[in-house]
Design brief:
Layout lengths: L3 E2 L3 H11 L4 H7 L7 E2 L6 H8 L2 H9 L7 H6 L8 H6 L4 H9 L17 H8 L4 H9 L14 H4 L5 H30 L1
Parallel strand pairs: 1-2
Helix pairs in contact: 1-2, 1-3, 2-4, 3-4, 7-9, 8-9, 9-11
């Protein structure tokens, strides 16, 4: 599914309102005829703009909208040519509630960037941003994030982790180990069930 480029004044208006944190975006987004599957000149979707501008009401409208052109899961995971998508943007801001909303609706914590940050997942970003993002990392692992994910140049989540303070690195190790233990337990339980 390809994105529509900006073609109407209404398209320009919604991005202008979102980027300026203006409530006019809400009236446009409430229109059931508004097709949210558009991009601005920088390939941002309205959802990406709502996340980066911190407009919670606009975000809620977009996550609950019924697009005639695609399911919400596909819209959340829609990526720019660089690989940036709504989940990666949400993993980079402090409000974990936004990230949870995306993951609950099918956001993929394992989607990857291309280019300069090739292979980075949203979990790599959360780990690299420091101790305020431990909840983000845990949540993405709970929603199917791969604790073994490596970048295109072979760096693990722990290797891109913000090195200061050292306690953050230890916390990341604990979070990743807990996720790996949970995966092992689930696999053992599945094997046990299969043997019955």
């Amino acid at each position: 599914m390809s994105l529509l480029q900006l073609v109407t004044e209404e398209h320009y208006a919604v991005f202008d309102c979102l980027n300026n944190q203006n409530a006019c975006a809400l009236s446009i987004l409430k229109d059931p005829e508004f097709d949210m599957v558009i991009t601005d000149p920088w390939d941002n979707t309205p959802l990406m703009s709502a996340i980066t501008s911190g407009m919670a009401q606009a975000l809620a409208l977009l996550l609950n909208a019924k697009s005639p052109s695609m399911p919400i899961r596909d819209y959340i995971n829609m990526a720019k040519p660089t690989g940036h998508n709504a989940v990666i943007y949400a993993a980079s801001i402090k409000d974990v509630v936004i990230l949870k909303s995306l993951l609950k609706r099918g956001g993929d914590p394992n989607s990857r960037l291309s280019g300069e940050k090739g292979g980075w997942t949203a979990m790599h970003f959360a780990a690299s941003l420091g101790s305020n993002f431990g909840g983000h990392l845990k949540m993405m692992l709970e929603y199917g994030g791969d604790p073994y994910a490596v970048t295109a140049d072979g760096r693990s989540i722990l290797e891109v982790c913000d090195p200061t303070p050292v306690s953050w690195r230890h916390k990341v190790v604990d979070i990743l180990n807990d996720a790996i233990d949970a995966m092992d337990e689930a696999e053992s339980a599945a094997i046990g069930q299969a043997e019955l």
